[in-house]
Amino acid sequence: MSEAERIDLVDRAPLTEKQQNVYESIMQYQRVNGYAPTIREICKMVGVASTSSVYAHLKILEEKGYIA
């Protein structure tokens, strides 16, 4: 994570451990592949079977300003 990304995150609402795991997984995937993962790919990365559970985390990340 770059210094600019770290500074930007300071102003955002804190994440739970699970939300942080989802966020970091998305960012890592995007750095490696150049595009964001699908919900099913996120499920595999974080070890969750339910796409609706991941979707809920994505909505929270969006509301807190971590993703658009």
Describe the structure.
Helix 2 (17-33) crosses helix 4 (51-63). This protein has helices spanning 3-10, 17-33, 39-46, 51-63. With 68 residues, it is an all-alpha fold. The protein has one domain (3-63): Orthogonal Bundle (Arc Repressor Mutant, subunit A). The mean pLDDT is 91. Residues 14-67 form the LexA repressor DNA-binding domain. One of its GO terms (biological process) is proteolysis. This is LexA repressor. GO terms for molecular function: serine-type endopeptidase activity.
| Percent in strands | under 5%
* Span of the ends, CA to CA: 18 Å
CATH architecture: Orthogonal Bundle
CATH level-four homologous superfamily name:
Winged helix-like DNA-binding domain superfamily/Winged helix DNA-binding domain
Helix content: 55-70%
The multimeric state of the shown protein is single chain
Q: Note the overall shape.
A: globular
